[in-house]
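Posting for a labmate who doesn't have an account.
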Amino acid sequence: MSENTLTAGELAHKAALDTTTYKAMEVAHAWVEDLFDQLMESAHLYKDKIDQDEFCIVYVIATDPLLPTLKRRKFYCWPYLPAPRPNQGVYLYRKSSDRIVCRLWTLPVAETMAELATPGFVVDKPYELMQLWSREFYKGNFWKFIRKQHGINMLSQEEWDELNKADLIKAGLESGNPRLSDSFDFSKISAGQMEYSSDPLTLQDS
């Protein structure tokens, strides 16, 4: 069976059995080896669907709580600045020139973000930008900082939703975000008879 036909569980099991010690830099290089091609492929998939010259390509490293050794790369595009989150990279694409204009931001895992944002925490020069982005994230000043840093005026996801609310409602959508499930209403639950787990079940009971 080839690598391309293995299931997620099989890949996770294979990774768990691997006792090789890998250098962090080697792993990082492997992750981004074909990143540019993947970003451009995503942009080309979305460019006819997004009716504006510039839009964001979002790159997220996704994990699965049931498969801790497995990580997946997800790519998608939005006509606005997406909500910042850990393990995320965002790039600005220009349709008219068919090129990636710049990297807007890159955020690491949540624990590293919190550490980078700690006052007085000193990092090496390659990590200074990531530290700035992490600090602005916790300050709640993220959009203003990103726009000033890159000289852009693109709307955030919340601002875009508000501006296009009428069209979204007309299309049957109150928001671009998926609706959260309702909380469980315990007031609507009733029980006719309680069975206690400490009592053994007999054949008649079952």
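Reply:
Got it, the structure tokens are right above this. The chain has a mean pLDDT of 79.
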